[in-house]
Design a protein that fits this description.
414 residues; alpha/beta; Aspartate Aminotransferase, domain 1; Aspartate Aminotransferase, domain 2; 2 domains; seven-stranded mixed beta sheet; four-stranded mixed beta sheet; 16% strand
Length: 414
């Protein structure tokens, strides 16, 4: 027996300091440690209450400990956990069928995260291009300020150099262009391009929606050159924008779509959706994953899709969005020295700081957290809101009240 372990290992006291002692320092988490949650309500180790407007970075869209999902997962836990990819299972077949029926796609591949979904999409795109056109067609076009994951391939495709520093040499034949710039896209998408990957709304890059004209132009240029168009909907998908997937409110249908985050409401799962023709270029053994599409994840995700993909539910997301935007419009009018115009889609919302306060988004969110409101940032200049899609009018009003109080305290100390 390991001499370091004792019989009380599962119940020993732990604090925020424990993170600094035993975990690799890839994060800088908040001082408080959440211990339980329900809906949008979170409590920490001191039993302090918080209103969660982060939903785990646009993940827990049906709220924490959603009773329908708890019940479904509990039943599956007592039935079948894992098999390995030498076998299939009923929940994953039902989930794939539901996603195919609800989207443009004919085929689904399941994995465990958004990064893995994008990795699969990019590998498939290159395989498709090499097989159909030859190895010269391998270049990948992405956007500056984009984010597509943390594997070496996906972080290289992402358009934020700060995340690739020190990991060189990076995968080659990857180019980045400005977001929403049609002429830059026209110049970059040539006959040697295998794929263009784009977020229909940039999340980590500042919560910036893609212009419909820009997305349509990407579709046109890909059709002209034989490149595949990949929509990264890891953050925007599964109801976040008020449609099941954001592409559904645009004039564009992608060739490949990636999904994760809200798909499992906190249970790890990712998905890559594509057409019959493209899917055939992944043959047996060409790609895989040990845990992807396991019965537990697939059970949760199927229930998530069934609950969110309802007209009334999606209409409520847009209604809640309009209420938050109305509050933010009043906020920016009252504090024009601090904020620019709010932007986003549905319940993925960015509030940019004005010129004199750039770089201080985290300072504002820390004060809000102290007052009981959990918020995100999207880069150093943008406060990001991504509440659960079930957010109530009362919770929207409470978030507005706390944010205003936090702004007053921030400005008093500025």
């Amino acid at each position: 027996m390991n001499a370091k372990l004792d019989s009380g290992v599962t119940t020993r006291p732990v604090t925020r300091q424990t993170f600094d002692e035993v975990l690799v320092p890839t994060y800088a988490p908040a001082a408080m440690v959440p211990v339980r949650a329900a809906g949008l309500d979170v409590w920490d180790q001191e039993d302090k209450h918080y209103l969660d407007f982060t939903s785990g970075i646009a993940v827990s869209s049906l709220g924490h400990a959603n009773p329908v999902l708890v019940d479904a997962l509990t039943k599956q836990i007592n039935t079948l956990w894992h098999l390995g990819n030498g076998y299939t299972n009923e929940p994953v077949l039902r989930l794939a069928s539901a996603l195919v029926e609800a989207t443009f796609a004919d085929r689904a591949f399941f994995c465990n995260s958004g990064a893995e979904a994008n990795e699969a999409a990019l590998k498939l795109a290159r395989k498709y291009a090499h097989t159909k056109f030859g190895p010269h067609k391998s270049r990948i076009i992405s956007c500056l300020s984009s984010f597509h994951g943390r594997t070496l391939f996906t972080v290289s495709v992402g358009g934020q150099p700060k995340y690739t520093e020190g990991f060189e040499p990076l995968p080659q034949e990857i180019n980045h262009i400005p977001y929403n710039d049609i002429e830059a896209a026209r110049a970059a998408i040539l006959d040697d391009v295998a794929a263009v990957i784009v977020e229909p709304i940039q999340g980590e890059g500042g919560v910036i929606p893609g212009n419909h004209e820009y997305l349509a132009a990407l579709r046109e240029f890909c059709d002209k050159t034989g490149a595949l168009l990949i929509f990264d909907e890891v953050q925007s998908g599964v109801g976040r924008t008020g449609a099941l997937y954001a592409y559904m409110d645009t004039p564009v249908i992608p060739d490949i779509l990636t999904s994760a985050k809200a798909l499992g409401n906190g249970y790890p799962i990712g998905a890559m959706l594509t057409t019959e023709e493209i899917a055939q270029h992944f043959n047996v053994g060409s790609h895989g994953t040990t845990y992807g599409g396991n019965p537990l994840a697939a059970t949760v995700a199927l229930n998530v899709v069934e609950m969110i993909n309802q007209p009334a539910f999606l209409a409520r997301v847009k209604e809640a969005s309009a209420k938050i935007f109305a509050n933010l419009e009043k906020l920016t009018a009252d504090y024009p020295q601090l904020f620019g115009k709010a932007r986003g889609l549905g319940l993925l919302i960015g509030l940019p700081l004005a010129e004199g306060f750039k770089g201080r988004a985290k300072d504002v969110t820390k004060i809000a957290e102290k007052m009981g409101l959990m918020l995100l940032i999207a880069g150093p200049d943008v406060i990001r809101m991504a509440p659960a899609l079930i957010v109530s009018d009362a919770q929207i009003a409470e978030a507005d009240r706390i944010l205003r109080a936090a702004v007053d305290e921030f400005l008093a100390a500025a």
